[in-house]
Amino acid sequence: MKITVIGCGYVGLVTAAGLAEAGHWVTGVDRDSLKINKLRHQEAPFYEKDLEPLLRRHLKTGRLTFTTSLALGVANAQIIFIAVGTPALSDGSVDLSQIETVAAQIGPQLHGYTVIVNKSTVPVGTTRRLETIIAQHTCRPVPFDVVSNPEFLREGNAVYDFINPDRIVIGTDSPQARRIMEELYRPFLKKKVPLIQTNPETAELIKYASNAFLATKISFINEIAELCEAVGADLPTVARGMGLDHRIGPEFLSAGPGYGGSCFPKDTKALIHLARSYGKQLSIVEATDAVNTRIQKAMLAKIIRILGPPAGKTIAVYGLAFKANTDDLRESPALSIIEGLLQAGARIRVHDPKALAAGRKVLGDKVTYCADEYTAAQDASAVVITTEWEQYRRLDLDLLKTKMAQAIIIDLRNLLTPEQVRAHGFLYEGIGRGSKQ
Ligand code: NAD
Q1: Residues 266, 405: one domain?
Q2: Does residue 414's CB lie within 6 angstroms of at least one atom of ligand 1?
Q3: Distance 411 CA to ligand 1 centre (A)
Q4: Domain check: are 80 and 176 in the same one?
């Protein structure tokens, strides 16, 4: 099928490459000419595991092309995906300006029946609103349908997740659009990926309810971690003991510095806002959001409690990205910790395997960027692990100790084994590791 994807960010680009891999002919459109130039030169504009080889493959097969021109991009497309940003406004509601602009731009380009598929995360009611906006902007009456098709990929595993989704959700009342969406996803449905066909409102809410539930799991386990520290219990063991119960499951039970990223913080707030606008209160989601804010602040207090006043001290921070295997810094807990330590007068040396360039754009020359962990640890009074990159599990602790002014590791991702680190002469603190053994 001939497909256009508008918005070549984390979701749009992976969607474009994934659909090309599934055998479709895909044009990616983005208003950012720097991004499109990089893509045309076979370069991914951001780091996402396994994405660049996939892009290269389909730029070569010709199944994937890129343009900044929406008009050119959507010409003759049977299906137009929208995957632009839907950031939060200060009151927690969603800024729909990008998606509404795109809808208005698509309208005049429609000539025959087209399915417009929204992949952006949007409040309930937006799919129908897009229909109205598009209809207002067509040059003459032309048939089209707007379908809600929320995306559940995880940054850092986005390519795998797109190709192997847990489910595909299609929200539309139109039988014609349903048939076309089934044809589009046939390669996935052949692999027995569960398909949920429903109305747009249900599809839109599935996305928010899923993200709010996952965020709740994180806030829940972070509070249990605080209790572990108070009572002398070991959080990873508690989490394992919980997760072996099939009704609970082992995923999303790792304690850490609070959730960040471009989705959970904004999507929980958007769901709270949506419920309130219908006179409903989602007390659990509100608590999830409040706990996350508190946990993030508590991380700074924890570092200062262990380290003493940071003024004049050098601190090595391992990880800028909000999670491993991405260079995405949006709402990264590492950034708020770094800002807090800088305000308290510390000097910061940072390492991240993929996000140093993105970090420079945000932090400028306020910190020192280091190519490896050992350079970052030079003269440091503590190493603080903020992102769960696998390589931080394999630190050469003896070498690390020779570089540091003080042998302290504060492991906000529980990557290391306390006994091993302490055996190398470090003071070690993790999250919820209150075990006295
Ligand atoms: P992003 O900011 O990385 O990408 C959005 C892209 O849209 C940018 O490249 C921007 O230049 C482009 N764009 C904006 N307006 C445009 C226009 N008028 N014409 C052409 N291009 C335009 O965002 P993202 O992380 O890919 O998220 C996109 C949507 O998907 C959001 O609604 C998000 O909530 C949702 N989502 C994100 C994830 C994730 O992990 N990032 C997962 C699931 C769903």
Answers
A1: yes
A2: no
A3: 32
A4: yes
205 domain residue, yes or no: no
**Same domain, yes or no: 185 and 236:** no
Q: Is 207 annotated as a binding residue?
A: yes
Nearest Cα neighbor of 267 from 429, 168, 408, 123 is: 123
Domain CATH code at residue 401? 3.40.50.720
User: Is 86's C-beta closer than 6 angstroms to any atom of ligand 1?
Assistant: yes
In whole angstroms, what is the distance from residue 235 CA to residue 255 CA? 8
Q: Is 106 in the pocket of ligand 1 (CB under 6 A)?
A: no
Distance CA 89, CA 95 (A): 6
What are the mean pLDDT values of the chain's consecutive 10-residue runs (437 residues total)? 97 98 97 97 94 96 97 94 97 97 97 96 98 96 97 96 97 98 96 97 98 98 98 97 97 97 97 98 98 97 96 98 96 98 98 98 98 98 98 98 98 97 97 79
Shared domain for 12 and 135, answered yes or no, is yes
263: annotated active-site residue: yes
Please tell me whether residue 341 adopts helix, strand or coil conformation: helix
pLDDT for 298: 96
Asked if 128 contacts 116 with a C-beta cutoff of 8 angstroms, the reply is: no
**CA of residue 82 to ligand 1 center, whole Å:** 9
Closest CA to 383 of 344, 236, 371, 395: 395
Environment class of residue 348 by beta-carbon count within 10 Å: exposed (0-12), middle (13-18) or buried (19+)?
buried
121: in domain: yes
Report which secondary-structure segment, H or E, holds 148: strand 144-148
- The verdict on whether residue 330 carries a ligand-binding annotation is yes
Does residue 337 contact residue 303 with C-beta atoms inside 8 Å? yes
Residue 194 lies in domain: 2-198
Is the CB of residue 197 below 6 angstroms from any atom belonging to ligand 1?
Answer: no
Q: Which token pair is 51?
A: 């994405």
Count structural domains, the chain: 2
Same domain for 194 and 234, yes or no, is no
Is residue 81 domain-shared with residue 141, that is, in the same domain?
yes
Residue 54 placed within a domain: yes
In degrees, rounded to 5, the angle at the alpha carbon of residue 38 between the alpha carbons of residues 34 and 39 is: 115
